[in-house]
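Data deposition worksheet. Section B asks for the primary sequence of the deposited chain exactly as it was used as input, without tags or linkers unless they were present during the calculation. Section C holds the resulting structure in token form. Section D is free text for depositor observations; keep each observation to a single sentence. Incomplete worksheets are returned to the depositor.
Section A, Depositor: J.P.
Section B:
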Amino acid sequence: MKNNIITIFKKECTRIFMDRRLFLTAVVMPGVMIYVMYTLVGNFTSNMISVAEDYKYQIHVVNMPESVNTIVSQVPLNINVIPASEADIESLIQRISDRNTDLLMVFPPDFDELVAAFDITSGETAPTVTLWGNQARSESSSAYYMMSDILEKYHYSLTHRFSIEGVDLATDADIFGAFMGALVAMLFILFIFSGCQAIAPESIAGEKERGTLGTILVTPTKRRDMAFGKILSISLFGLMSAVVSMIAIMLSMPNMVNLGSDTNTNFYEISDFLLLGVIAVFTTLLFVAILSVLSAYAKSVKEATALTMPVMIVTMLCGMAGMLTGGGPDEIIYYLIPVFNSAQCVTAIMQFEASVGNIAVTIAANTLYVLICVALLAKMFNSEKIVFDK
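Section C:
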């Protein structure tokens, strides 16, 4: 009995360790992928709540008093103080609301004289410094807390001889969009991938295992047509799965954000959902095309499923890129990167910053990648070594 156990043990160990693909995908790859994923997730999370170290805050100031100017100049902060007039206040408030600049500070005229003459026992209203910021923009939020901290310390040093009033220009739509842009892009990409992953490995690798793929290939059907047919059929089911998942997400998001029962959360228009649908279609085609190539390369369904793990990790990281970038970048080059481009388009749509040009580039790029995968899959179907490799 002991000899039988040892014999079987040696046989299985030999099978596992001699099969390099199985060893790498089942033993080495999970650890490497987990390390890479958690390292990058930590970086993404840190960048989500912080501002680049070399960023220079744009702070507009009306009636900057000499006392505050002296304090600000002595603090080692990377800020650009821009003098402004009272006539500029309305336009600057609009720019902050549009997330085009960081902060507006308005002091009363002759602030230093008013503070020196103010009697805290008089019961009168103290001179007020007003700060306008936008919490939906991380740079604006950081600038607001930075300057309010400086003013608070000065406020206490003068025994409360002036007051500070903060105005947050972020609307419910801004807050909702910032949250959705950071989270939904990841869920959107992940659910589409999950729907495709559940079907694609079985479609080709399963037929190789059962020995039916070779029978199909002896028909006069062109290899390219067969590749297209498989990708389109799998994409249909993958897209159906993604649609159901996304409907559930959209219905549950208002409760997750918890803006309040009286708050309207119907911020998105039909055009936004149509754009999401278009992105979903071409992203599904891309995933199915990639997974089909991996499925054709694999010897079995189990190996095909293991080979999808790196793609899944990359997919998650691309989905989380919205947390890192804070919105869709303007550079066209980003929209040529597969998967990442779809995630950035979704982020931009959810944050009400969708660009038709960027979406068009994404569609064109993903279509090109799908055609490349189709050509590669057709070529793999022509290879007896791949088709009959079990």
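Section D:
Confidence is low (pLDDT under 50) at residues 259-263.
The two ends are 32 Å apart (CA to CA).
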